[in-house]
Amino acid sequence: MPTAPHTARRSRWGEHGLAWAFLLPSLVVFALFIGYPLGRTIYLSGHANDLFGAPSRYVGAKHYTDLLSSADFGRTLVTTGLFTLLTVVPGVLGALVLVLLLENRIRGVRLLRSAFALPFAFSVASASVVFAVFFNPASGVLNGLLSHVGLGPVGWLTDSRYALVSVALTTVWMNLGYNVLVLSAGIASIPGEIVEAARIDGASGLRLSRSITVPMLGPNLFFLTVVSTVHALQSFGQIHILTKGGPDGSTRTLVYSVYEKAFAYNSSDFGTASAQAVVLLVVVLACTAVQFGVLERKVHYA
What we know:
membrane; mainly alpha; 2 strands
């Protein structure tokens, strides 16, 4: 007859086996769709390839050293950083301002909330096509408005001075609905007694928002900042539809550069593209680590 320790040990092994059985499907999916592609990308980044893209010979870190010494790649990194700033900061702050304004007791506030959340329902392709019509230099809405005030047409997508800002504006609008929904949910979760106590103490309007609402929204703002940064670094669809990385490479981000090296214009330089993909992964991990190390600590101690 088994003793108590043996019975307890057998029970623990049974619980561990059951836990691994439940985890196994997720681990298989993770290995197939994340682990293997990541390992294959690292493998390809260390090999040269033939005309058909098949790895031919080991070249070590040559692709990485070529990238780090390339002026075009440096420009791509700068463009990626600027695009991230132009989308994350206005996207999060703009959604915060809208949500705070919608907290005022005005007529039709529910309709306004639905209207501001509407961009969340648009796909990247449909939103990009809509903004391509807005930015059209000949018949676009924006240039039509400029003509009414006596200003000449602007090449929103064909002038390197405005193209990146135009694509960033499209991205901000696309993300606005999601950001508004997250911050609205955060405001709804603020205990009513805290807000009421602040009102009794005389806080209202801007002071109430600055002292109570915004600090209480700290976790939501942190979440949106991290998610928006990752999405900005991975943006591709709107860039491809609106500018295809142009004009003159002014909207070529790191993701789009990977696409150009690997697939565009009948290219099959998988080695360089894989090295760029690994660099992108490092950039995403570094940005996320910095945000968790700086912003999360401020949210925690706020």
